[in-house]
Fold these 2 entries.
Entry 1:
Amino acid sequence: MKLYDLVGDDGLFDALYRIEQENDPNVDIRYVVANKLQEWLNNLDSFFKPWDNDSIAICRKLVEEHATIKD
């Protein structure tokens, strides 16, 4: 899984796997991804490398548009 090699978040991929098993062609995973982005944004200091400001801004915009869980 190429995306896993990029982000390596077991919780995210467990959630995506469960959704995949439901076999619903209409499922929208943006909410799952946006909620995970929110979790990451809340813990930026836990990453090995710092995030650049543009990346943070892009992720915050995606979270505002799609996350179901807010700070």
Entry 2:
Amino acid sequence: MPRKRTPEDLSVDELRRLLVEKRRRLRSDRLDHFRRTGRIVMLAPDLPPAALENLRVGPVVETPEGEATELSVSQRRRWMDGLLLGIEILAVIGLVFILFNGLGILRDLNREVAAALAQETITPTPLVTAVVLPSGHTPPDASGNTRPNESEIPEHLRPIVQSIANLPVPTPSLETAIRIQIPAIGVDAPIVQGDGWEQLKKGVGQHIGSANPGQRGNVVLSAHNDIFGELFRYLDRLQPGDQVILYSQQKQYIYIVTRTEIVEPTRVDVMAPTSDPTVTLISCYPYLVDNQRIVVFAKLQNP
């Protein structure tokens, strides 16, 4: 029995011939498989033998049957991996942007809140009522003509007097004082809001911001003594124990006179708020001289 030859015993030509025969068998088997499964499509009729002799065939590269499929899957996987990597990079960039943008917004909000909470240094606005008492005017002449006494007002505050002359007064409420009666001197007059020159032409003026009748605080009322009805001409006749009656739309309030003072026009402290329900009556003094003020103080009866 002849000994089986190993690949080392074969020459190069024999090995090449064996390899070609093996490839031919594999190709033939694959074609048979394609015929059985219907995967062969005839693209052109068979060529004559003469044409086949002139046909040059290049080297055939054998590819295993599953290799093409694996290559396609691998390409798709690489493409998907690249796409996912790009999405992840964009997500990280977006997250970083949102983080920095959020920090900027938070910083701006903190700055705005700090600015809102910071108390500004307020420059006090000088008020005429903080310098002189209301109802000041020059003594009427022989024809009864008079005007506000600007000499009582510091020169640097006079423009403020002109600027507030036409300021609107608060809308009256049910608790606002509307009338005053002083039986001892025959006073029965309406009360208007504001104690400027125009308001005191209409009646007794209540200082803006002073208390309402019956409430804790100081009701500050002013009127003239020798012009516009001379409503407070006889304040100097009031005695402790006399009544001052104030009316709102709901109720009347009786105050009892406690004392009277003659003061300079700059004694604005008499207009200050009080802890008890009080009323303060102010007018120019003396009659037809008007270089001082008469101030009558009264307290609420049975508060």
